[in-house]
Q: What sequence folds into this?
């Protein structure tokens, strides 16, 4: 069986906590024998991607700061009701409130 697994991670600027965190949504296509095992597989992958690194803009007194990326949560798991995946297969969908869609469609630089 195939599953689409949506996961959220959060990036925080440890040197400047006043900077709003940045969120990352990733969607994985997973082949597994169950939803539980598909979820476990993705959590393992995402936890292995957790990291800290030096980034520019550490603040007025330092040029570099530490950014940390951490797994937060599985947002949802969707069973793909096909035995095979092919070109243009739909692997993820969700319904959104108008405010959610408007927020997602707003570019970052329009604050």
A:
């Amino acid at each position: 069986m195939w599953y689409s697994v949506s996961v959220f991670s959060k990036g925080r600027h440890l040197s400047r906590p006043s900077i709003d965190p940045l969120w990352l949504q990733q969607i994985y296509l997973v082949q597994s024998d169950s939803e539980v095992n598909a979820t476990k597989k993705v959590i393992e992958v995402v936890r292995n991607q957790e990291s800290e690194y030096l980034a520019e803009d550490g603040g007025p007194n330092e040029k570099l700061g530490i950014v940390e990326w951490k797994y937060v949560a599985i947002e949802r798991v969707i069973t793909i009701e096909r035995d095979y995946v092919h070109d243009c297969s739909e692997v993820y969908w969700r319904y959104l409130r108008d405010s959610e869609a408007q927020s997602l469609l707003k570019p970052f630089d329009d604050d």
In short: The first strand starts at residue 2 and ends at 13.
